[in-house]
Amino acid sequence: MIQLKSAEQILLMRRAGLVVAEGLEAMTAAVRAGVTTAEIDAVGREVLARRGATSNFLGYGAEYGTPFPAVACISVNEELVHGIPGPRVLADGDVVSIDFGAVVEGWHGDAARTVVVGQAAQEDLDLIDVVRDAFWAGTRRMRAGGKVSDISKAIEQAIRAHGRYGVLRDFTGHGIGDAMHMAPDVPNYHVRGRSPVIEPGTVLAIEPMVTRGTHRTLDLDDGWTVVSRDGSRGAHWENTVALTERGLWVLTEPDGGQSLLGDLFGPLGD
Length: 270
Ligand code: MG
Prior knowledge:
Layout: H1 7-30, H2 37-50, E1 72-76, E2 79-81, E3 95-104, E4 107-116, H3 122-140, H4 148-161, E5 166-167, E6 173-175, E7 182-186, E8 203-206, E9 209-211, E10 217-219, E11 226-228, E12 234-236, E13 239-243, E14 248-250, H5 258-261
Antiparallel strand pairs: 1-3, 2-11, 3-4, 5-9, 6-7, 6-8, 8-13, 9-12, 10-11, 13-14
Bound molecules: magnesium ion.
Magnesium ion (MG) binds next to loops.
């Protein structure tokens, strides 16, 4: 059920992951008042071109409806995920989620970050802390012989420990490899019952999505943008994470997750 990757394949996914990390770093650095979301997308496009990588977002979903027209999903404030970059001008205090991916030699990377433009409200900074903490809490539970539901449970517990937040149920993390979305789903809340077992060679996109209000979402008419039903702001934190024979390797973090994983860190290569 879960596609297991060889060491060679994980090393190729690391190359894609580093392009994703570089793109997200450049795009989040470009976020400021007065810039349009299309301009942020162009920064990501430029990184892909410079690194000889292709986009797994551009043209996505053509078989279901409107193909996604950009290399990043950029979602502002009550837009939670899948926002389409365009003429929207960012303003001071906006909460901006950027979800970005890259393909290198057929292998995919996928990650997301949320930042605030200029002067941030404390509640928005707290929201971003919650979603980032939840990502790391879930990732630490990705263990050989463990289950995907261990990750889901840890994410939900981490969010609940911070207070009342909406945990999106309509969207989940996912397996990733020679396609962006693969089995298994990785929900951000505990689901009872059977759950796939994790083994070395498993690679997952772990991605909690949290709001300051409801978990209920609404799809906009553009065919992509997902907003919160109550208008509350959301945050999204995602990385592509491999379980190697040595431990965890966060493929879309520049340091592979070393600084936050401690003994669990287990990269491949020298
Ligand atoms: Mg994803």
